[in-house]
């Protein structure tokens, strides 16, 4: 009794902690005022697809960064070579990230190598100027870091140095981006590193990120250069906003990093907006010295390769204060001052992915998500009570606790709830109920054998435990790949499913067992009453001979698979921008008909944009192909002191402006812009995730079962997968990352179904190895038939509301999953059993046993050896 009480106390504490963690999400405002603020504010954050906002993925232009670093080191090297009287001739290299020159005396090669190492020496003792060898020198093998073909030398940066400089640049860029966004007054922007060279920016409530894009796309690197009259390799040309050219010294007279403050003000002399700045102590001393020594010369202030002002220095400028003049508007001057205050980006950033959701669409998504979620959950709970009565009510309590624990864990981790996350919660409930059905069916089997309540509970839970672990673990393999290879919302979906699988193990195996033991503690010697009209009806069905028509079943499955493969080519999958790249807009334009909208776009040279009506009247879906864009998504780069906006590729802002001019009431519900590099990455990762999911589950099943068991299960899942892809192609559902999530969820769900049957086949083979394989397979499928059908029905009850009223955002997940549940259930009953029988008979013909011996059987056989 003491042990039971302690176990109950532990379970109660776990549940209490989970409920306390989830509670702030459901507390009304009136109660939040009476609890500590740190607790009431500890809630799930809503994703941009639920509250509206913008998502920008910024990629660092590493080539520009490497070119700048290489130029710095090579300039230092050449200066050093001149001091050492080592003669050379510099060439124009074909490679943008290489510097090439010829030595007058090849014997100077060793000295050059030594000087290169000294000028590029790093803190760890390595050299930045290293290169792969390209040829053989006159002295033999080319020295590491400098290669010579004849006496021509190439310099590049080492991979180690490149990785280090990118890491440092991204870390510094994160801080600059955060500071810039904070100064704009945005509400809780999220800035995180993604991958090795990208930054993800999420801005809740921002439905038009044009000004933010301009702000983040401007590097704001300010430098001071002296004008020169000598045009050579140590000079370069830059223009001002009016096109006037300046020949400047390459040597930087003063770096903008010395700026400590900047402000936009009106000039008292001209009454025009100007930017004033203040230098730190070191910068002020340098500025005073350089102006003292260069009176009469022109000092150009260069901001992002544009000369914004170039005054003649008439006297010493002490105090470290200066002024930038130009054709600024006050707004532009304020932006320039903000960027100078927050510091320059150490590397140019380009937007390679942009997603925007309007606030109205976000609120609609919350409403439909909550409604479909509640409807699905109620359907599952009512169905469980209808099947198993009071025992179904206990399972429903465990399922409710499971969902609360999932919310609690997500809240504890500070997760963000997205629309795919809501889909994950609904699917989690549908899959978690499988464990409860499996347990109840096992207990029912033991009760039919005449066992009393205590014995039936113990044996039923013991037999179900291994199957639950195997099925959940195989599903977890597929879901974990969603997290590893997915992005954004897909990761949220994966995390939700994974947490749900783990918590369902606790609630189904531990909590349900405890509650059922409590309910039967006074009736340990009496049989459990697990009867209902549905169960009675299910018991009267069968037994069926599922192998009787195995040839027909396999032939029909193969034909459907071949048809699905044909649908893959024609009509083909309707790929979303996630995979094709390009621009997709969902707009509401009440004043524009389809023809009027098409005419307006053609008049402004947007002929390649496809227009599709969807949803309510005057709602349109616009698609611009990837050919309209370059490798980066359009980004407005505001030139300092100019209103000119430079764009790369198709200008999304120009497209929005054209539509707004035609209909001032237009609402941009959703905008997705994906560059080719991102879309190619999504496609590669999706294929890789599917392959690794199959391989991972095959390896696990081979470890847990025999090879022919694993092969039968994986072949069936492959057939289910091809049919589902064919269904997506035939119905024209958009194939995007959410659809890939559905395919990976299908793999997990389908293999879960197959594992239950395989586990029963293995159990029966161990009990009666002398029986025919066909009889055992048929008995296994029939004995798990009610579990298979009930699990499928509960999963469908959870998914159908989402498929019917969940909206476009989750239709590419829910609709294929509904199809997958139906096709997966039928394949479990007919295809897996048929393939296992065929592979098992072949194994028998080779004289091999159906099962490998257990450790106990091996020990017993060894004990008989004299």
UniProtKB/TrEMBL annotation:
<keyword id="KW-1133">Transmembrane helix</keyword>
<dbReference type="InterPro" id="IPR054384">
    <property type="entry name" value="SecDF_P1_head"/>
</dbReference>
<comment type="similarity">
    <text>Belongs to the SecD/SecF family. SecF subfamily.</text>
</comment>
<dbReference type="InterPro" id="IPR022645">
    <property type="entry name" value="SecD/SecF_bac"/>
</dbReference>
<dbReference type="InterPro" id="IPR000731">
    <property type="entry name" value="SSD"/>
</dbReference>
<dbReference type="InterPro" id="IPR005791">
    <property type="entry name" value="SecD"/>
</dbReference>
<keyword id="KW-0472">Membrane</keyword>
<dbReference type="Pfam" id="PF21760">
    <property type="entry name" value="SecD_1st"/>
</dbReference>
<keyword id="KW-0813">Transport</keyword>
<keyword id="KW-1003">Cell membrane</keyword>
<comment type="function">
    <text>Part of the Sec protein translocase complex. Interacts with the SecYEG preprotein conducting channel. SecDF uses the proton motive force (PMF) to complete protein translocation after the ATP-dependent function of SecA.</text>
</comment>
<dbReference type="InterPro" id="IPR048634">
    <property type="entry name" value="SecD_SecF_C"/>
</dbReference>
<dbReference type="GO" id="GO:0005886">
    <property type="term" value="C:plasma membrane"/>
</dbReference>
<keyword id="KW-0812">Transmembrane</keyword>
<keyword id="KW-0653">Protein transport</keyword>
<dbReference type="Pfam" id="PF02355">
    <property type="entry name" value="SecD_SecF_C"/>
</dbReference>
<dbReference type="GO" id="GO:0015450">
    <property type="term" value="F:protein-transporting ATPase activity"/>
</dbReference>
<dbReference type="InterPro" id="IPR005665">
    <property type="entry name" value="SecF_bac"/>
</dbReference>
<dbReference type="Pfam" id="PF22599">
    <property type="entry name" value="SecDF_P1_head"/>
</dbReference>
<dbReference type="GO" id="GO:0065002">
    <property type="term" value="P:intracellular protein transmembrane transport"/>
</dbReference>
<feature type="domain" description="SSD">
    <location>
        <begin position="709"/>
        <end position="838"/>
    </location>
</feature>
<feature type="transmembrane region" description="Helical">
    <location>
        <begin position="710"/>
        <end position="729"/>
    </location>
</feature>
<feature type="transmembrane region" description="Helical">
    <location>
        <begin position="813"/>
        <end position="836"/>
    </location>
</feature>
<feature type="transmembrane region" description="Helical">
    <location>
        <begin position="789"/>
        <end position="807"/>
    </location>
</feature>
<dbReference type="InterPro" id="IPR022813">
    <property type="entry name" value="SecD/SecF_arch_bac"/>
</dbReference>
<feature type="transmembrane region" description="Helical">
    <location>
        <begin position="369"/>
        <end position="388"/>
    </location>
</feature>
<comment type="subunit">
    <text>Forms a complex with SecF. Part of the essential Sec protein translocation apparatus which comprises SecA, SecYEG and auxiliary proteins SecDF-YajC and YidC.</text>
</comment>
<keyword id="KW-0997">Cell inner membrane</keyword>
<comment type="similarity">
    <text>Belongs to the SecD/SecF family. SecD subfamily.</text>
</comment>
<feature type="transmembrane region" description="Helical">
    <location>
        <begin position="685"/>
        <end position="703"/>
    </location>
</feature>
<dbReference type="GO" id="GO:0043952">
    <property type="term" value="P:protein transport by the Sec complex"/>
</dbReference>
<dbReference type="InterPro" id="IPR022646">
    <property type="entry name" value="SecD/SecF_CS"/>
</dbReference>
<protein>
    <recommendedName>
        <fullName>Multifunctional fusion protein</fullName>
    </recommendedName>
</protein>
<comment type="subunit">
    <text>Forms a complex with SecD. Part of the essential Sec protein translocation apparatus which comprises SecA, SecYEG and auxiliary proteins SecDF-YajC and YidC.</text>
</comment>
<feature type="transmembrane region" description="Helical">
    <location>
        <begin position="552"/>
        <end position="569"/>
    </location>
</feature>
<dbReference type="GO" id="GO:0006605">
    <property type="term" value="P:protein targeting"/>
</dbReference>
<feature type="transmembrane region" description="Helical">
    <location>
        <begin position="492"/>
        <end position="515"/>
    </location>
</feature>
<dbReference type="Pfam" id="PF07549">
    <property type="entry name" value="Sec_GG"/>
</dbReference>
<keyword id="KW-0811">Translocation</keyword>
<feature type="transmembrane region" description="Helical">
    <location>
        <begin position="735"/>
        <end position="752"/>
    </location>
</feature>
<dbReference type="InterPro" id="IPR055344">
    <property type="entry name" value="SecD_SecF_C_bact"/>
</dbReference>
<dbReference type="InterPro" id="IPR048631">
    <property type="entry name" value="SecD_1st"/>
</dbReference>
């Amino acid at each position: 009794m003491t042990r039971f009480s302690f176990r109950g106390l532990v379970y109660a504490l776990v549940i209490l902690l989970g409920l306390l963690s989830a509670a702030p999400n459901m507390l009304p405002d009136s109660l939040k005022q009476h609890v500590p603020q740190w607790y009431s504010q500890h809630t799930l954050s809503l994703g941009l697809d639920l509250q509206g906002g913008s998502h920008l993925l910024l990629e660092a232009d590493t080539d520009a960064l490497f070119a700048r670093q290489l130029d710095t080191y090579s300039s230092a090297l050449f200066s050093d070579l001149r001091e050492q009287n080592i003669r050379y001739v510099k060439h124009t290299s074909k490679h943008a990230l290489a510097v090439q020159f010829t030595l007058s005396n090849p014997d100077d090669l060793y000295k050059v190598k030594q000087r290169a190492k000294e000028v590029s020496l790093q803190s760890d003792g390595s050299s930045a100027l290293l290169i792969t060898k390209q040829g053989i020198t006159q002295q033999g093998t080319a020295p590491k870091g400098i290669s010579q073909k004849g006496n021509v030398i190439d310099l590049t940066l080492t991979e180690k140095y490149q990785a280090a400089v990118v890491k440092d640049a991204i870390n510094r860029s994160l801080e600059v981006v955060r500071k810039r966004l904070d100064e704009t007054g945005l509400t809780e922007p999220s800035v995180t590193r993604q991958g090795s060279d990208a930054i993800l920016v999420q801005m809740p409530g921002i439905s038009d990120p044009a000004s933010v894009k301009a702000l983040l796309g401007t590097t704001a690197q300010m430098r001071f250069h002296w004008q020169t009259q000598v045009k050579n390799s140590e000079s370069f040309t830059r223009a001002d906003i009016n096109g006037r050219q300046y020949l400047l010294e390459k040597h930087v007279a003063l770096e903008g990093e010395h700026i400590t403050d900047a402000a936009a003000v009106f000039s008292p002399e001209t009454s025009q907006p100007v930017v004033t700045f203040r230098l730190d102590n070191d910068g002020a001393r340098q500025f005073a010295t350089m102006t003292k020594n260069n009176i009469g010369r022109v000092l150009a202030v260069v901001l992002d390769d544009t000369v914004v002002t170039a005054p003649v220095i008439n006297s010493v400028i002490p105090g470290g204060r200066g002024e930038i003049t130009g054709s600024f508007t006050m707004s532009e001057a304020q932006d320039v001052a903000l960027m100078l205050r927050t510091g320059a980006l150490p590397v140019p950033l380009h937007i390679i992915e942009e997603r925007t959701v309007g606030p109205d669409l976000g609120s609609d998504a919350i409403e439909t998500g909550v409604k479909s979620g509640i409807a699905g959950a109620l359907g599952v709970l009512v169905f469980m009570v209808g099947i198993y009565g009071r025992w179904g009510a206990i399972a429903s309590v465990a399922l409710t606790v499971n969902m609360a624990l999932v919310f609690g864990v997500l809240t504890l981790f500070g997760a963000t709830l997205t629309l795919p996350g809501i889909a994950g919660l609904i699917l989690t409930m549908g899959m978690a109920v499988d464990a409860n059905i499996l347990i109840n069916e096992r207990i029912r089997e033991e009760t039919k054998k005449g066992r009393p309540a205590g014995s039936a509970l113990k044996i039923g839970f013991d037999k179900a435990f291994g199957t639950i672990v195997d099925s959940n673990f195989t599903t977890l393999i597929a879901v974990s790949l969603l997290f590893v290879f997915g992005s954004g919302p897909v990761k949220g979906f994966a995390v939700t499913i994974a947490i749900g699988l783990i918590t369902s193990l606790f609630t189904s195996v531990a909590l349900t067992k405890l509650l059922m033991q409590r309910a039967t503690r006074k009736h340990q010697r009496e049989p459990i009453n697990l009867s209902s009209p549905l169960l009675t009806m299910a018991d009267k069905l069968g037994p069926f001979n599922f192998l009787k028509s195995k040839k027909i079943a396999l032939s029909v499955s193969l034909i459907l698979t071949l048809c699905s493969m044909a649908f893959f080519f024609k009509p083909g999958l309707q790929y979303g921008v996630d995979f094709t790249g390009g621009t997709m807009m969902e707009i509401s334009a009440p004043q524009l008909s389809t023809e009027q909208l098409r005419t307006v776009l053609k008049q402004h040279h947007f002929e390649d944009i496809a227009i599709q009506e969807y949803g309510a009247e005057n709602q349109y879906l616009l698609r611009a192909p990837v050919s309209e864009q370059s490798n980066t998504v359009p980004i407005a780069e505001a030139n300092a002191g100019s209103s000119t906006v430079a764009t790369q590729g198709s200008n999304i802002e120009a497209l929005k402006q054209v539509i707004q001019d035609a209909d001032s009431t237009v609402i941009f519900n959703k905008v997705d812009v994906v560059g080719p590099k991102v879309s190619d990455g999504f496609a590669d990762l999706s294929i890789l995730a599917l392959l690794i999911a199959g391989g991972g589950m095959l390896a696990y099943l081979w470890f847990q079962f025999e090879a022919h068991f694993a092969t039968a299960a994986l072949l069936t899942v492959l057939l289910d997968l091809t049919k589902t892809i064919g269904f997506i192609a035939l119905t024209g559902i958009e194939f995007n990352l959410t659809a890939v999530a559905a395919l990976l969820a299908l793999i997990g769900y389908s293999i879960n179904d197959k594992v239950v049957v395989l586990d029963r086949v293995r159990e029966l083979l161990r009990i009666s190895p002398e029986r025919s394989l066909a009889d055992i397979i048929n008995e296994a499928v029939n004995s798990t038939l009610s579990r298979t059908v009930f699990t499928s029905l509960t999963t469908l009850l959870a998914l159908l509301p989402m498929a019917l009223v969940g909206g476009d955002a989750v239709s590419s997940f829910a609709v294929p999953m509904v199809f997958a549940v139906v096709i997966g259930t039928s394949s479990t009953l007919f295809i897996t059993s048929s393939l296992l029988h065929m592979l098992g008979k072949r194994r028998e013909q080779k004289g091999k046993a159906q099962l490998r011996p257990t450790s106990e059987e091996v020990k017993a056989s060894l004990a008989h050896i004299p």
